[in-house]
Design a protein that fits this description.
Elements lengths: L2 H24 L5 H25 L3 H11 L6 H13 L6 H8 L1 H11 L1 H4 L3 E6 L8 E5 L1 H27 L2 H25 L7 H19 L6 H10 L3 E6 L3 E5 L1 H6 L2 H4 L5 E2 H4 L4 H7 L7 E9 L2 E13 L5 E10 L1 H51 L3 H5 L1 H28 L8 E4 H18 L3 E5 L4 E5 L1 H17 L6 E9 L2 E8 L6 H8 L21 H13 L3 E6 L3 E12 L6 H4 L11
Parallel strand pairs: 10-12
Antiparallel strand pairs: 1-2, 3-4, 3-8, 4-5, 6-7, 7-8, 9-11, 11-15, 12-13, 13-15, 14-15
Helix pairs in contact: 1-2, 1-10, 2-3, 2-4, 2-10, 4-8, 6-8, 8-9, 9-10, 16-18, 18-22, 19-20, 20-22
Length: 609
């Protein structure tokens, strides 16, 4: 196999490499730079494939046909490369169409002149057989336009490299590597073409494109060449709302975004990067100390700056940047503006203090008002009780009116009393101190207190509780629970009725029952009782009918039982009575003695059995 055949095979291999790069670029064809890369590699492959045919051609017609294939790519390769550079750098985006037209004007003319070269010989003057060398078979004598095209190619290649230089200086490390890949890919065919232009008979430029294909393929796989362009990186970098400063391993600022300039106006005064961080950030000694630290550890800290007469607050993140090794190659400092959060936090703190003061004032006002209402009502209740004990003729005449006044005053007193208890429980003033208590003794004490009211209606109070039952409860809350349930039972039981207290043990709970044979609970009130409301009114309350009242005591009872872990249930049939059952944690068989509670005084023994 002679030299021409070997060269032709190598050129076909170079063509395959460039087509492979075109395939890789096609997978990213939604990117404009990827589409330009496809066109550039296809035109380069036409150049390489046509030259492979030219080398093995034996006749002038074969050489001319091969040149026609070559010139599908020769005029356009450099133009596509410059277009790629323009897209990467973002140059004159508004005039991109006009730039593209100007860049491809000379290549298009070159292509057309070569197609019609037989008429004017502006590209090639003549084809001279090469009898002393095996490659090429014919040596071409260049025309005047060939020189124009060559100068144009070198000019746009040099222009592309010059456009890359400023971007390289301000780019991030990954972007710099992409730029180097693109420059190397253009440099290989350019250098080989220069050798050809200065007297070398064999044109090695297509082999340079093979080198370009390898370099570009390496860049695609290694440096994500076609994923994000330098322009995209720059746009992303500049549009970050947080300030970002990039430093190299010598603590020099190599790049920053616009947000960082707003934080440090000194950055905008730096004419040329890189610049020493100590020269620019001298107004922030704390920040400089953390930057020059050699602990190689990421850091997070706060920073304050006075900008335009306003105090600004930032959370700073110092992050070390590593290449493939363990040693850091630079640092990145990000500044997250939290001024608005700080201001909101201060406003919330002020509002919280105001609310706290208002809440304290409300607590004092509520307590004072509640006690001021309770005390005179308690006095009125006592006076009405005295009047009942010593009725006169005029009292008897107005007995119905008097009894209504007495009932309303007594109910209002219980409401205020319950309201105060509930308020103290909600405000944390009621201490929950559970202890073991003998249930029978506590129940008898509650019955003795309720006996006076029961005697007025000739009610029979019955207690059936095993003396061994013990409950674990807060004594004050337990007294209130019994008081409310007995008060309701007495109120809604007719004259001569019966109220019974009983209890039994089930599992770890003591079940206490308060039953009466009174009027019972109507369905509407029962539905209200089942709802977990703060308070509710029975039907008739607003219209002042006899049946209307506010069941606040039951709400408080339910709340205190929940604090013990128990619950309150009820069963009722209108006209037949009601049964309220509540549960408390307890046991059977323990004797709990309390000297203050053992002597339960029975005020009206004739009504308790």
């Amino acid at each position: 196999m002679d030299t021409r055949q070997w060269m032709s095979i190598m050129l076909c291999f170079a063509t395959a490499i460039m087509l492979f790069v075109s395939f890789l670029s096609y997978r990213k064809r939604h990117l404009q730079v990827a589409r330009t890369m496809i066109y550039m590699m296809i035109t380069a492959s036409c150049y390489s494939l046509g030259y492979a045919f030219e080398i093995v051609s034996e006749s002038l017609s074969g050489v001319k046909l091969s040149l026609q294939i070559e010139y599908l790519g020769i005029p356009f390769v450099s133009a596509f490369w410059l277009l790629l550079v323009i897209q990467f750098t973002g140059l004159a985006a508004r005039y991109r169409k006009w730039l593209t037209f100007l860049v491809f004007l000379v290549p298009t003319v070159t292509f057309l002149l070569h197609v019609t070269n037989e008429w004017h010989h502006l590209v090639y003057l003549e084809y001279i057989p090469n009898r002393n060398q095996s490659v090429p078979v014919f040596t071409t004598l260049k025309g005047p336009w060939y020189a124009v095209h060559a100068i144009y190619n070198y000019t746009i290649l040099l222009l592309g490299i010059l456009l890359f230089i400023p971007m390289y200086l301000r780019a991030m490390p990954i972007v710099r590597k992409q730029i180097v890949v693109l420059i190397l890919g253009a440099a290989a065919p350019m250098l080989l073409n220069i050798v050809y232009m200065f007297g070398q008979i064999i044109d090695l430029t297509p082999f340079g494109f093979a080198v370009s294909g390898v370099v570009y393929a390496w860049g695609i796989f290694r440096f994500r060449l076609l994923r994000l362009t330098p322009l995209a990186y720059a746009k992303m970098f500049d549009t970050i709302r947080d300030g970002v400063i990039l430093l190299d391993y010598e603590d020099q600022i190599v790049n920053h975004n616009h947000a960082a300039e707003e934080i440090f106006p000194e950055l905008g005064l730096a004419k040329l990067l890189p610049v020493l961080s100590a020269d620019v950030l001298s107004a922030c000694p704390e920040l400089l100390t953390r930057i020059v630290s050699r602990e190689y550890r990421d850091d997070r800290f706060s920073l304050q700056r006075l900008l335009n007469g306003q105090q600004r607050y930032y959370i700073c993140s110092l992050t070390y940047i590593y290449d493939t090794g363990a040693a850091p190659i630079g640092k990145m400092v990000m500044f997250n503006d939290i001024t608005e959060l700080k201001e909101n936090e201060e406003r919330l703190r002020e509002k919280s203090e105001r609310l706290s003061r208002l809440n304290t004032f409300k607590d004092k006002l509520f307590t004072v008002m509640a006690h001021d209402i309770r005390d005179p009502i308690a006095l009125i209740v006592s006076l009405t009780e005295l009047l009942v004990e010593e009725p006169t003729d005029s009292d008897i005449a107005n007995a119905e009116v008097f009894q209504e006044i007495r009932r309303q005053v007594r109910d209002t007193f219980h409401l205020v009393d319950n309201l105060l208890d509930w308020y103290r429980s909600q405000n944390g003033e009621v201490a929950f101190r559970p202890a073991a208590w003998n249930l029978q003794q506590v129940a008898r004490q509650a019955l003795s207190i309720a006996g006076a009211r029961a005697a007025m209606k000739d009610l029979t109070l019955t207690e059936q509780i095993d003396e061994r039952l013990t409950v674990n409860a807060d004594k004050e809350m337990l007294d209130l629970i019994f008081r409310n349930l007995l008060s309701n039972a007495i109120k809604y039981t007719d004259i001569g009725g019966r109220i019974e207290l009983s209890a039994f043990f089930e599992g770890d709970w003591v079940m206490v029952s308060v039953s009466d044979n009174g009027s019972g609970i109507d369905e509407e009130t029962a539905q209200m009782l089942r709802h977990d409301e703060m308070y509710f009114k029975e039907p008739g309350f607003a219209s002042r009918e006899d049946s209307g009242n506010m069941r606040f005591g039951l709400v408080l009872t339910r709340e205190f039982l929940r604090m013990h872990g128990g619950n309150l249930n009820f069963n009722s049939l209108p006209g037949q009575g009601s049964t309220f059952i509540f549960t408390l944690p307890g046991s059977v068989g323990r004797e709990v003695q309390n000297e203050n509670e053992r002597s339960a005084v029975i005020a009206n023994e004739s009504h308790i059995s």
